[in-house]
Write a structure and sequence with these properties.
Elements lengths: L1 E9 L10 E7 L8 E6 L1 H11 L9 H11 L2 E12 L2 E10 L2 E7 L1 H11 L3 E4 H12 L1
Length: about 140
């Protein structure tokens, strides 16, 4: 089952952070009482996600801008991102695109999916299997 999520916060310290930058996903509308977990992303992705959240434009299109424009030019729309699995400490994402009455599911890194979903103002979901795997990992 898909659980609605929202990006709660980005951690963008000054300078390089080995291991990546955490983006915290949280149960939508739960405040401090629901689940929350970080997904580590690279420096380019954290920058692109920050720009998408604040709706900032760059002088020339970046990769995510190009992909979003391509989807739009083909008549499609980003419907949602689903963080669909956790395999060997790696989150798996599924970007759901509507195109001509069809639904297309594309395997993606959750970092890329979060950027595109944020740009499109599309919802983010987390499969309950991900939450169960995170809970199991914490119990070990």
């Amino acid at each position: 089952m898909e659980m609605p999520a929202e990006i709660r916060r980005l951690v963008i310290p000054e300078g390089f952070m080995p291991g990546g930058y955490p983006v915290f996903l949280e149960e939508e509308g739960s405040g401090d009482v629901g689940w929350s977990f970080p997904i580590m992303v690279g420096p380019m992705e954290i920058s692109a996600l920050n720009r998408a959240i604040w709706e900032q434009q760059t002088p020339r299109p970046m990769t995510h801008d190009t992909l979003a424009a391509t989807i739009d030019s083909l008549g499609g729309s980003v419907r949602k991102l689903v963080v669909s699995d956790l395999v060997d400490h790696t989150f798996i994402g599924t970007l759901v695109i509507g195109l001509g009455g069809r639904i297309i599911e594309i395997d993606c890194r959750p970092s890329d999916g979060m950027i595109l979903a944020t740009m499109a103002k599309a919802p983010i979901f987390v499969e309950d299997v991900v939450l169960q795997k995170l809970a199991d990992a914490m119990m070990q």
